[in-house]
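Thread title: Can someone regenerate the structure for this chain?

I was given the following input by a collaborator and told the matching structure tokens would be attached. They weren't. Posting the sequence so someone can regenerate them.
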Amino acid sequence: MQFIDRKKEIRRLEKSLESEKKRFIVIYGRRRLGKSTLIKKVLKDNDVYFEADLNEPAMEMQLLVNAIRMIYPSFADARYNSWDSLFMHFNNICGDNATLCLDEFPYLVKKNPALPSILQRLIDSEKLRFNLIICGSSQRMMERLILNTSEPLYGRADEKICLGPIPLPYWQEALGLDSRRAFEEYSVWGGVPRYWTLREDYLEFWEAVESLILDKHGILADEPNALFLDETSEIAPYSSIMTAIGNGHRRYSAVADAVGKKVTELSQPLKNLREMSYLTKEVPFGENEEKSRKTLYRISDPFMAFYYRYVAPNKSYLALGRPEKIIDKIHKNFNSHVGSIWESCCIRAILLNEVFGIEWGIASRWWGTLSIKDSEGKNSGSTDIELDVVAESIDRKHILIGECKWTSSDYADRLIRVLKTKAAKMEFFSNRHKIYVLFLRERPLDNLTSDDTDVHILYPDDVLKLLS
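Best answer:
Regenerated them for you:
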């Protein structure tokens, strides 16, 4: 697969490495995102790249010496009794504007806790003759090393890049997918380069899913646990929480009940999962995240959402070599899974974007229970309402109200009537100019009969353009 996107990151790295001042660069992000590939794109012939492992310190030092010797043969002539002596000698013999990259840096720190302090002294000495890049897949450890005020490397980084998944439009363009197929594929592989590379080895989408994920020997069959092991040795709380949420237990208390833990016992692992960008905390549009009592948790990564919806709850079938049971479940409600990813993409397409000639600010879902008033204005009951997309314009004069459908064709006029009926019950929309939007997978069965210029339909092609 060709190297796609990351143009901004490459420009930043190249500019930083071309500086006369020697730079300390930190790159991190979850496994499989292409961090190592990105680094290798900017390294030159006299630069040293070293990928650490969980070997004993003496072995890691020797492996690093071997890597340096490949570029600087004389480096192996000396003996190194400490990391200090190794780095200082490299500092003395390296070429002009050389770069040393220590990939999977957290592995080194686990076996050598003093290593950050050693690097801090070298950086602070102002005698550094080479650029230093540290990289790691343990997001929380990397952030702690550089953002925690008590850590030796705090405040030393000249460049910090937290690598995220590659957005869907890049995958559609690179692989020549039509818009509908792009959303369906993205709902499984997400924005992770390694997953798409593996997917390319198969002619058919479902063949790839079955072989890579639903086969007990598949490369991605146990992928979440491998990701969690980058962050902690105790993966059970993380896996249990994700399984609960993947099966629809989205409230804090419901997750605790499903996992069999007290609510207080889940606060830290939930926080960690959010920091790792696997979970998103949702509150209804317009409510304060810290104060709302309607908080829901959503699996934000498409691959993880797919895995914990279909695979994790049914792993016994995989162990028995009977994936057809899971495959049948997936085929029966796959559109529902894609629909949840579609809804998230539609929200992102509006968020902080100019659409219909209007600049929009915050955007999210809204859900809740509203009182129903009779003709005299008295409460006569209540009704539950959910709106897939709600956004407010930057100038606060407009409100966008949207419905997302990843289903076969429906009648647009009916959907708009339902949407307007819901909006009419929302009192805090009353003083805003309303824009109604249908986000549809397919063309409707009818043409909109309304002459209302504030009614719009957006299709997958349109949403992909807005996401670009």
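The first strand starts at residue 24 and ends at 28.
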